[in-house]
């Protein structure tokens, strides 16, 4: 009977200990405290996740888009003026001896007159030419700068402009020069280019004798013939 009683006591102790341990475990679980398995740090993943599309950093090396510069509208040119200027540029060194005569060392007005025919002018009894090469005849206004000035002024075919009126000069207008400011005209050409505006207008001309296609008026009157004066005939 004694052994049986001791056995019961031991069994009771064991049962009581189990209940206490079980109660503690249940209490821990119900209190929300993590177990050893829950608090264990998982092994680090060696594979890095790819960033999302909207998390990608912008490409700061991309070239900024270049905006083209504005281009001005082309200046309209009358077809007859274009024909005149084209003639000057085609024959400023290649003299047109098949259609006209040539005056050696003094062909500037003869060449200008030819270009005006290309522009649409017609000869009259004061301004004319006939023959070719060295076998030809002309009126004085066809070949003389001063006579041409007088003819144009009297006929009204063009309007006189001074060098201070560059803003009114157009392509195809006639440029004339008084190299020594004696009152006559010493050289004649045709305006083939105009650049700039306002007080910074540059005018270029083509001509024979001093053969050129784009000679600057400023160069002609300040460097080639210092102190000379330029004039123009504005042709409607």
UniProtKB/TrEMBL annotation:
Residues 34-63 are annotated as: Disordered. Residues 82-226 form the Putative amidase domain. It holds the Pfam family Amidase_6. Residues 34-51 have a biased composition (Low complexity). It comes from the Bacteria. Residues 1-29 form the signal peptide. Keywords: Signal. This is Putative amidase domain-containing protein.
